[in-house]
Design goal:
The structure holds two protein chains of two kinds. By secondary structure, chain A is of the alpha/beta class. Chain A has two domains: 3-236 and 397-475, 3-Layer(bba) Sandwich (FAD/NAD(P)-binding domain); 239-392, Flavocytochrome C3, Chain A, domain 1, CATH 3.90.700.10. Helices cover 29% and strands 20% of the residues of chain A. Chain A has twelve helices and 19 strands. In chain A, strands 1, 2, 6, 7, 8, 9, 18 and 19 form an eight-stranded mixed β-sheet that branches. In chain A, strands 10, 12, 13, 14, 15 and 16 form a six-stranded mixed β-sheet that branches. In chain A, a hairpin with a 5-residue loop joins strand 18 and strand 19 (415-421). In chain A, helix 1 packs parallel to helix 11 (439-459), helix 2 crosses helix 3 (88-107) and helix 9 packs across helix 10 (336-349). Residues 465-476 of chain A have low confidence and may be disordered. Chain B is mainly α. Chain B folds into two domains: 3-104, no CATH class; 109-383, no CATH class. Helices cover 62% and strands 0% of the residues of chain B. The longest helix of chain B is centred in the middle third of the chain and has 30 residues, at 234-263. Chain B starts with 21 loop residues before the first helix and ends with a helix. The chains are: A alpha/beta, B mainly alpha. Chain A binds chain B through residues 42, 49-50, 52, 111, 113-114, 116-118, 128-135, 138, 142, 244-248, 250-254, 268, 299, 310, 313-318, 320, 331-333, 388, 390, and chain B through 1-3, 5-7, 9-10, 12-13, 15, 32-33, 35-43, 48, 51, 54, 73-74, 76-80, 83-85, 219-222, 229-230. Chain A: InterPro entries: CobZ, FAD-dep_OxRdtase_2_FAD-bd, FAD-oxidoreductase_2, FAD/NAD-bd_sf, Succ_DH/fumarate_Rdtase_cat_sf.
Chain lengths: 476, 385
């Protein structure tokens, strides 16, 4: 085989945080690196464009972090949000490595700032990117280009040649590209509605995708079909209730609504279906996507009155308003009498209490099914407002199994000779379910950095645990 | 079922139903989008000021627009900038609002139209100024005086008596100051700035420091993003050369005035004397600075530019450059027969510069400094609870 065909040491598929961390880290190890980003330059980076912070352990406060966040506390938080559904050794490894990410990522040109207005609760645990995720991406791309990483846009991989767990080549726009090692960092499959339908049926047609339109799961599918071991529950995805007026893709964080706890939520028959005041909002927002997905036509309406309008962060779209409940129902396309009856029934069940949106207060309903157990106040002060909501999918959990060196494991448990994975495509190793803000970027950054380093070492034949197959690959 | 609400209609809206212009309505829409995101709050003063508000009437938008230094960072950092359908282009829209605001606050209001065709207006003013001085000199003097070689103290005043010069330039300066002051009053009222802010010395000092260092022309620390998403501090450097060059030239003139009246020393002064040194150093800054700013403007990402006001930007840069160029040429040629014409050209350019100060890009510095005072005051109020 002519040697010029194997001109790259490391091929990185994907263009987000994980991919760029891998590319930079591989390049710093001396590898020749090619990055294949399926999108054009504007949309590059997939879901990283919509992120704003990264959760890293640290032992002391910094200029942008208000206090320490120990490895142990991070681990406890992870155990709590995943209800223990995590690869504990891998999770501990990631958390340990996250400590050096804060300085490493800064060395790659990314800048921090104190936590954003309206996110003070994350000021101690999460490091915020100055200018947000796209600014962070731009810095990583600049650094990668300066270091000599080659980047191709609109380069969607359509086939992978994998023999006995060893990556040989990738097909891009009809061209076959060879490399000695592969880093798969191409995201999940949440924007592939057909794939989502396998688990959700026709309801998936009404899902909105909060992030990129490019996470079709092509690479994940190709890897799984080539005998890679899968991890994570395929039916699981991170879903929240977002404004129904949001675009199908890339509406991002600004389509979120933080007002469920202040009102009632009804379905298209104007019926309530869940306790809106079950717990404080940060602990409950991630269940509402699933709840709305289970309602007819996957649509619901948050109804509240004038007294609540300024209690939550301003949102992208103005609420729909009317001077009467019946008028509001008409604007929403609901049966006016039905909504009137639901609101009246709710108002009659509200018990006296002292409203306090900072704590689990004593404002609750009595004799109502389902009950509203906190922050229940009568909806009576005009004008009345509504936000229509639909399920908004953030990401999927199904992925490729990896070890601590980000090496992809094959179905029989053996590590692949030269394939690595980082980011959303392997997030299911750490996140069996649930989510904690900023942890997706931790997974991408930490495992991207490791994957790039190990892929470079594999390609250059000096990886300590390099398998025979890997050595053969470098001899080609 | 109101299907129109869903799937089809993803257009976002502003916070206030009525605005004076389409640009203001668009700015309201953008601030509403930005206020639900806030990723850019660490980049400059505009976004923290935005976060103190939930609704954006015209006065507030004019305040925010003048607070924006047009560094471009928020455009490149934004996940919703075009071609995203939310079409968030804050630098461009605020540039339009800001440029419209100069016309909105101008005194007298009848002259608002000069901002629309500002390049033409300034060019005519400059041509008129230069022509008037040359014709005046030619009418008053015979060719021997106009094209003669004059040296020693009072050489300039053989072509134009000192008192005439002072009267003419004093009058035009006074006019410019009055017109600008009336513009300031209109702006300050419209942005609903509290009376207290203008006498809050701590806020004023903070604004002086922020304006003097161009604190918010740095994309949050790395430099402004003019050509593309790669930051560079070049614009700030050229603006410093321009501004401080201008101030040194102003200091040169002021020093010369003091020399004349207090010490009885008449221009021209030897090359090593303070007015000449200040003017020469400032003049060099005022050549390099505007040239660099103009070059940066040509290289700027087209999507960030308010193309309707390019003429105004270029005219102001050109006037500063010509002021310096003619001044330095006068210095070089002052002992030759070309001095008479050169003096007429220089005085003509400077006269036009002063006369058009309230009617061109010069006012950007005034309104931006005021916006910075307001911002400093708001921040102080906020931090004091």
């Amino acid at each position: 085989m002519p040697s010029d065909e194997t001109s790259y040491d490391v091929l990185v598929i994907g263009g987000g945080n994980a991919a760029l961390c891998a590319a930079i880290s591989a390049r710093r190890e001396g590898a020749r690196v090619l990055v294949l980003e399926a999108s054009d330059a504007f949309w590059r980076g997939g879901n990283t464009r919509h992120t704003r912070n990264m959760r890293c352990a640290h032992d002391a406060a910094t200029e942008s972090l208000s206090g320490p966040y120990t490895e142990e506390e991070f681990f406890e938080d992870l155990m709590r949000v995943t209800k223990g559904r995590t690869d504990q050794d891998l999770a501990r490894h990631m958390i340990r490595e996250s400590k050096t990410m804060l300085t490493w990522i800064e060395e790659q040109g990314v800048r921090w700032q104190p936590s954003l207005g309206g996110t003070l609760s994350l000021g101690r645990t999460n490091s915020f990117f100055l200018g947000g995720g796209r600014a962070m991406l731009n810095a990583l791309y600049r650094t990668a280009e300066t270091l000599g990483v080659e980047i191709r846009y609109e380069a969607e991989v359509t086939a992978l040649e994998i023999a006995d767990g060893m990556f040989l080549s990738a097909t891009v726009n009809g061209e076959t590209l060879r490399a000695k090692a592969l880093v798969a960092a191409a995201g999940g499959f949440e924007s592939n509605i057909e794939w989502l339908k396998r688990y959700w049926g026709e309801a998936a047609e009404n899902f909105l995708i909060r992030g990129t339109r490019n996470n079709k799961g092509t690479i994940l599918r190709l890897l799984l079909d080539a005998g890679v071991q899968e991890v994570g529950d395929p039916t699981q995805c991170h879903a929240v209730a977002i404004d129904a007026r949001a675009p199908k893709y890339d509406g991002g964080i600004i389509t979120r609504l933080d007002c469920v706890v202040f009102g009632i939520v009804v379905n298209k028959h104007a019926q309530r279906f869940y306790d809106e005041g079950e717990d404080i909002w940060p602990k409950r927002y991630a269940i509402w996507g699933r709840l709305v997905a289970a309602q007819p036509d996957q649509i619901a309406y948050i109804i509240f009155d004038a007294s609540s309008l300024k209690l939550f962060m301003p949102s992208l779209f103005p609420p729909i308003s009317a001077s009467t409940i019946e008028g509001l129902a008409e604007k929403l396309g609901l049966e006016p009498a039905a909504l009137r009856e639901t609101v009246d029934g709710f108002n009659a069940a509200v018990q006296p209490g002292t409203f306090d949106d900072k704590v689990l207060d004593d404002c609750r309903t009595d004799g109502l099914d389902p009950p509203k157990t906190h922050w229940a106040r009568r909806i009576e002060e005009a004008p009345f407002y509504a936000y229509p909501v639909r399920p908004g999918i953030t990401f999927t959990y199904l992925g490729t199994r990896v070890n601590e060196e980000a090496q992809i494991l094959m179905a029989d448990g053996r590590p692949s000779a030269n394939m690595f994975a980082a980011g959303e495509i392997m997030a299911g190793n750490v996140l069996g379910e649930g989510y904690a803000a900023g942890i997706g970027m931790t997974i991408g950054g930490v495992f991207g950095r490791i994957a790039g380093r190990e892929a470079a070492r594999t390609a250059r034949g000096n990886r300590a645990q390099g398998t025979i197959a890997a050595k053969e690959a470098t001899d080609v | 079922m109101s299907e129109a609400l869903f799937a089809e209609r993803t257009a976002t809206a502003g916070s206030v139903p009525n605005h004076a212009t389409a640009s203001l309505a668009e700015a309201d829409r953008l601030m509403t989008v930005c206020n639900s995101c806030r990723y850019c709050e660490g980049l400059c003063a505009v976004f923290p000021a935005m976060e103190m508000r939930r609704a954006f009437p015209d006065g507030d938008l004019n305040y925010l627009a003048n607070l924006c230094h047009n560094c471009g960072a928020c455009y490149w950092d934004c996940q919703f900038s075009p071609p995203h359908e939310f079409d968030v282009n804050v630098p461009k829209v605020l540039a339009k609002v800001r440029n419209d605001s100069y016309a909105h606050y101008v005194w007298p209001g009848a002259l608002a139209g000069v901002f629309a065709r500002n390049g033409l207006f300034i060019a005519l003013a400059a041509a008129f100024g230069v022509a008037a001085f040359i014709i005046g000199f030619a009418a008053w003097h015979d060719a021997a005086t106009l094209f003669g070689t004059h040296t020693g103290p009072g050489a300039f005043y053989r072509l134009m008596p000192h008192n005439t010069m002072v009267a003419l330039f004093g009058a035009v300066s006074l006019y410019a100051v009055v017109a600008i002051a009336l513009g300031i009053r209109a702006f300050w009222r419209d942005i609903a700035a509290p009376r207290a802010a203008i006498t809050d010395w701590a806020s004023i000092w903070q604004a002086v420091k922020d304006a003097g260092s161009l604190r918010y022309l740095d994309g949050g620390g790395v430099g402004c993003m003019n050509d593309d998403e790669k930051p560079s501090d070049a614009r700030r450097l050229y603006h410093h050369l321009t501004f401080y060059g201008f101030m040194l030239c102003f200091a040169a003139t002021s020093t010369a005035t003091l020399y004349h009246y207090l010490l009885g020393l008449e221009a021209p002064y030897p090359w090593y004397d303070l007015p000449v040194v200040l003017g020469t150093v400032g003049g060099i800054g005022l050549l390099i600075g505007p040239a660099g700013l103009l070059a940066a403007k040509w290289r700027r990402e087209p999507d960030l530019i308010d193309e309707t006001r390019l003429g105004m930007d270029v005219a102001f840069i050109a006037m500063l450059f010509l002021t310096s160029l003619t001044g330095l040429l006068l210095l070089v040629l002052r002992a030759t027969p070309a001095m008479g014409v050169m003096l007429a050209v220089h005085l003509g350019v400077v006269f036009a510069l002063f006369l058009t100060m309230p009617y061109g890009k010069f006012v950007h510095g005034i309104y931006r400094a005021l916006a910075l005072v307001r911002y400093a005051h708001e921040r102080r109020l906020e931090s004091h609870g």
